[in-house]
Design goal:
295 residues, alpha+beta, elongated
Length: 295
Amino acid sequence: MTVYMTKTWGFGSPSGPLQFSQRGWRDRARGLLRPGDLVVIVGTMGDETHSEERGMILGLMEPTTTIVSSLDYDLARGPRDFDEAGNYRWPFGLELLRAWRFLETRTALSAISPRRFSMDSAQGIVPLLADEAEAILLLPREPVALLRPARTEARVAGLEAARRRGAPPPTTKRTGIMHMRRAPAFTYAMMIEGASPPSFKIGWAFDWRQRERNFNQSAMPELGGVRYRTILHELWDTAIDAFRMEQAILRHFDALRHARNQEVVSAVSADTIQKSWIDYLSNHRKRSTRAGKGT
């Protein structure tokens, strides 16, 4: 077993994956790690780290070599975690098997090792000497829970539990919730029953059932209005992914979009909508597979 060290801006509980700012650093760590290896988390000395955690031994991770995207996890993120273009600084990750938090009063790394570590320790992982690793592993610690990606959460706890875990408070303003683009959300296709010609509403929502109820409350089918009925829905790890699928489906039917509502597609069959839906998901999975092989 080898014990490595990396420096970060903090250590959260429950813990997300082992994160890296660049694919190369993640791949290098992945090449080094063997089953049972551990990574010690130490707070950086910069202003981004809380003053009481700077230089302190904060956490311990047992990573796997399974590649994940950090954006798929419901991590606590602040403004400093994004660059000037709005991109998350550490999108590349390795899934964890276990994690621990060191108990207070915390120990400074300098109290255990007099070595000066290079920038490699902030970008990637660096091995500790045997006596350094032994001293750190003797420090009191407790296990912490692990975060799971939204899609994994959906398989384990069901679609609604996954959605509730990441959904923001209800709002009627679509533009007001796009800042929550990293929360899980659905793309949906609703048949507008009673419409002539046959029509479908394509959209995205954090809760498609609530969206369907809201539409029907306005349409009032009981008094002769149309009825919205969801025929397709797909859960995505982030709202921006759900939005992208919505836009792709709408672009596919661009010539058939209603002049009064650009999210309504008319003069088309349910089978045609479903074929476009399946084609998008199939192509998305192919792209993801190719990207995974190249990462």
